[in-house]
Amino acid sequence: MKQIFQSVFAEGRKLYTLNSTPQQNLFSRDSEQKALPKRLFDEEIVVADGKEYRSWNPLRSKLAAAIVKGLPELQIKSDSKILYLGAAHGYTPSFISDIASEGVVFAVDFAPRVVRDLVFVAEKRKNIIPLLADANHPEAYYNLVGAVDIVYQDVAQKNQLEIFTKNCSMFLKPGGFGMLALKARSIDVLQQPQGIFLAAKRELEKKLTVIDYRLLSPLQKDHAFFVCWKN
Ligand code: SAM
Hints:
binds S-adenosylmethionine, seven-stranded mixed sheet, five-stranded antiparallel sheet, Rossmann fold, alpha/beta, Phosphorylase Kinase, domain 1
């Protein structure tokens, strides 16, 4: 296994993170009475040199897809403080919590059904703080979160750009990074995704410096991934 970023490893086309909570993988027994590590998301667990690695599926995670598609740098560090918008059941947040193992992930979602699952994930991973909130109203969680190193967003809404720039201007520290998974079809189902992405890039550049932009298809259809820097 080859290390490519902080706590991120690759073997062939497969990605893994170093599991920051291996003690959670209390061994259970399958029907053949073999010891099997318990997993939160059905991910494959590989044990090597006494360490545990969790497989990270680029078909389920836009950040993993961006890495597989050649993201040159990962700005998330071991002690990063992250605001994650659109956390859903916690799949990608759980891998970011491995990467930022000494940091904290504020995981926001407005759907009570998924936040229930997120609370369960946060019980196992102490650096995830689940927040039931609408990312359109960042003032609701401003006092809890404060300034962050990274704003990560994956919300698939028509006004996803507005939500992203609003949260970046409110929470990102100068020198911090915004990471945006943009879904073209949520903005316009008829327009060609490429046109939507280029218009989005121009819009982002009014407020932030876009340092990386890549298409995620075919791993994530009609999605692009932007990394922005706030100066
Ligand atoms: N990021 C997740 C992952 O990789 O594991 C998947 C996110 S899913 C595509 C989009 C999520 O965004 C949904 O759970 C939805 O409830 C949430 N969402 C959409 N609009 C939102 C908003 N305005 N505020 C907070 N969450 C929102």
